[in-house]
TrEMBL record:
CDD domains: FHA. Residues 23-73 form the FHA domain. This is FHA domain-containing protein. InterPro entries: FHA_dom, SMAD_FHA_dom_sf.
Length: 224
């Protein structure tokens, strides 16, 4: 099932499931499925419909633009990780949240603007997540909505992030390469994560984003 998350200036406001056959109306009108109290938003600004596994976004008012991944659109299909901009608010579309070691996961789950670099981009709040910032999966967002999410390449280098009562913790699982946080190996111990932490598992670099933290991702210097 897909979910849409509404955020403003990096802080998540609400999230809603998109049911089969449903219509999710977004706008300023109090009767909308998702109401945004802003003059920059039309009374009925956009609608998301679902048919089977197809999610369609339709902009409803030409005077109020709708952007998907920084590009104005009147109608388009949505994919996991798409970012919708309505006025000054952001809606993030999440579907099939899986780790990058799962071969069925999409290669790119968050589309960066052409002139931006993944290391400088701020991820819209859509729940706690990590963003890969190098390699073939650069730009991909992995949402940490399970009690444990395994990351890495099974049989080579992998680690897991667990969600505990007192926060999120990273633990190394396998591989000769060290798993590091902000350049420091964590060894055999679990390491608590904080918003903006730079994580490296094998050759894969990523940034940890804590829900509502609105933290600017750290810039990580590439090592030769």
């Amino acid at each position: 099932m897909a979910k849409i998350y509404l955020s403003f200036r990096g802080h998540q406001i609400t999230g809603r499931d998109i049911e089969q056959g449903s219509k999710t109306v977004i706008g300023r009108d109090p009767g909308c499925t998702i109401t945004i109290d802003s003059l920059a938003v039309a009374q009925q600004h956009a609608i998301i419909t679902r048919t089977e596994d197809n999610y369609q976004l339709i902009s409803l008012d030409e005077e109020y633009p709708t952007l998907v991944n920084h590009t104005p659109t009147s109608e388009c299909s949505l994919s996991h990780g798409d970012v919708i901009q309505i006025g000054k608010h952001t809606l993030s579309f999440a579907q099939d949240k899986q780790s990058f070691c799962d071969t069925s996961a999409p290669t790119i789950a968050y589309k960066l603007p052409e002139k931006a670099t993944s290391r400088d981009e701020i991820i819209p709040a859509a729940g706690t997540c990590v963003q890969i910032i190098n390699g073939d999966h650069s730009g991909k967002v992995i949402f940490l909505d399970n009690s444990m999410v395994r990351l890495g390449i099974k049989g080579q280098s992998s680690a897991a992030i667990t969600n505990r009562q007192n926060g999120y913790f990273l633990v190394h699982l396998e591989g000769e390469s060290d798993t590091t946080v902000n350049g420091t190996p964590i060894g055999e111990h679990s390491q608590q994560l904080h918003g903006g932490d730079a994580v490296k598992i094998g050759d894969t670099q990523m940034v940890f984003h804590l829900q509502s933290s609105a933290v600017q991702p750290r810039k990580i210097a590439s090592k030769a």
